[in-house]
Structure formats: structure tokens, C-alpha cells
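Hey, quick one: can you model this chain's 3D structure?
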Amino acid sequence: MNDRVHNPQPVGLWWIVFSVILGAIVIASVLPIFLIVAGLGAVSLPFLVIRDQRIREKMEREGVESHEQSERERALSELLRGVIDSADIPIIVSDADGLLVTSNTKAGKVLGVSHQMRGRRFDELFTQKALNELETLARGGEPGHARATIPIRGEMRDFDIAADPLPRASGAVLIFRDITELSRAVTLKADFAANASHELRTPIASIKGAAETLMGPAKDDPRMLSRLIEMISSNASRLELLARDLLDLSKLEAEDLPVDLRRVHLPPLVESVFAEFSPQAQRRDIRLVADLDVVEHIHSDPSLIKLMLRNLVSNAIKFAHEGTSVRVIARVDQVPIDRAISPPDGLRADDAGLLLTVKDKGVGIPLEHQQRVFERFYQVDEARSGSAAKRGTGLGLAIVKHAAKRLGGAVSLESVYQSGTTITIELPRCVPDGTDSGLDPDVEISTDVA
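Sure thing. Here's the predicted structure for all 450 residues.
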């Protein structure tokens, strides 16, 4: 592409005059009058040579400019191609006949539309009616937006598609924006409001009914009075628990919630959690066991660590078989940082990670429910959740998931139905390597963390 463009050079007029001069000189040997013709030609020859030289230089200059213009257009085309390819959203271009002209790399990764599909009809690649109508209208000069659900690798994804006519050609350019997470967030918000209303309605109705009965003939019946007071107390406790869990979850979801990283003495913190749930464990003959390996201190937020352990240990005791044990296990391991999560400031890259596991031998979780138990208010079934008095709020595992994310980590679950459940919190860069961690080594935290 760097070869110069050479235009054919015209035969100069001075060659013709020069030939006439030579002919006139030859003829002048016979007819001297032709010497006048030769003289006139000799006088005009330099001017003709200069004129032809200028014409040749102009043509060469125009050829170079034409070549440079071609190179600039090629470079601009490559630049535009690079810009389209580097765009982080899928872009597809169709021509006046609805044939695929080009697409960027992101379109290939997200939508499966590759450069090799060039020449195929747009409506062959996408079967959604709204999407095809949008592309057809854009080719006709009418821009627009549409939302469509497109199957991507076995998963239904929601897209907002913008279609615009090509400004200098007949065709359309379509830009796809993935709004799946936004759609899920809107749905989750609506579900959250509905579930919260449902969870609040039941205890409030029970308290109201008991109070109305107390104001009636039940106030003179000691046995009924005792039952109603117990009902009010039980449902008030449930409301208090629900309010606390909702507050915890709200704080964890707040983006501006600070993470208080400290030097945490892990064994006393675990023992404080065990002490809180010891009466509940003793009633069901369940042993609480701590297996912390060599982990003594970690660099983390003590309130979040205790919040996660409280929820996991409480669940494990509730669903473990009587006479079994609930184990809290801590192991040092390499836990990668999830780049999609912003880890808290203060974590050192050379520190190891921690696997904090709570394991029980209980009723377990059926496989079809395991992907949903971290959703807010999700509970498996009545058999697992127990009676209305014993049921939790359905927020515990959601709280654990969000608390782990605040620390740059994640939560995983393994469960075999009727055999037990193992939930592991993966926390990166929280186990100091023994060198100066930037924390005061003499500072210990209280185990009475709210």
C-alpha cells in the first residue's frame, strides 16, 4: 500500500518542435528559406521545455497528493474500525437490503455475531419481531429504541437497542446495551417490597388479633390471657428480628458504608458467637466446635465477621440433626480478588486469604433451591423453615452474601439433602504474612461486637 502512484507522462510539445527544427535544417540545405523556420523553432524551444516541465511537475504533485489522500482515507477507515471494535457494547451495521455489513468484536462475544456472518440477512440472525421492525424503520430513515430479550448461551438477557440510519448511505447501525442486571434490580426491588409487606403483615395481624381479643371477654380468662400474651411476645420478637435484619441489609447495601479494618483476634470472636447461641444448641443437643487451624489474627472488619458468623451458626443450629455438631473452620488459602467488586482500602496484596466455613449435619438444601437461598426472603419450604414461631426472616444468607462482598469476598455453598450443609466465606488478603501489617499489634478488639 506504500507504493507511489505513477501517472503516465504525456509526450511534451517541445519534442515535436525539436523534430520540426531538425527537419527544417535538413531541408534548408536544399531550400534555405527553411532556416527561418528552424530559427523560430529554436527561439520557442526553451519556453516549450519549461512549459512541459511545469506540466510534468504538476502531474507528479497531483499524483503524490492523490496517493497521500488515499493513505489518509485508509488510515481513517482503520481508525474508525478500531474505534468500533474497541467499543464495550455490541454494534451491528446493515445495508439498504438488510444485509449485515459489519459488526464489532463485542457483538461477536455477546451476541455471537461474527465478521464471517457478513452478507447474511439481519432477520436471519435475530427472530425478535420488535428488533426486526426497529432495524427496518432505521433503514427507512426513522431512528428508534426497543427492548428485547435475546437468548445468549442458554441464558435470557435483556437489551435496550438503539437503531439509527446511516448518515451518508442507506442502511442502519444498531447499538445493543445489556440491561439485564438493571431489569433484575427493578424486579428484585418490587419483590422485596412485596415480600417485606407479606412478612410484616403476619405478625402485625397476630398482634392486632390478640390485642382485640384481650380487650374482649378474654381479659377475664387467665388461660386465654396467658396464651395471648405469649402470642404477642412471640410476634413482637419476630418483628424485632425482622427490623434488625432489614437494617443490617440496608447498611450493607449502602455504597458509602465504611469498612473498619482492624487486627481481629479470631478465636475469642468465634467463642463469643458460640456463647450467644449455646442455650439454643444445648436444647437440641448440638455441639459447637471451633477448628481454627493456626489462624489467630486476621485483618478485617470485626462487626462484619461476627454478623456473618451469627447468621450462619444460627441457621446451622436450627437445621442440624439433634445430637450432631456445628463446626466453624478457618483455613489460610489464596483467595483471588474479584475485579467486579471494589475491595476495601487497606488490604495488602502480599497477605493470604481466609476460608471461613460453617458446617452442619442436618436436613440440607435440595439442589433446585441452592442457587436461590441467598435471595432476600427466600425460604425453601415449611418443612425446612419450621413453624411460624421458629421461622427466620429469610434474610440471613442475603446478609452474609452482602457482608462478604463488602470485604471483597464471596460466599459458596455445598449441600446434600438430609445429609448437611457447608457454607464457606472466601475473604481475600486478610491474613497477615507475619510482617508489619500497618496495624497496632497491641490493639485487640472486643468480642462484644453488635
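One thing worth noting: The first helix runs from residue 13 to 28.
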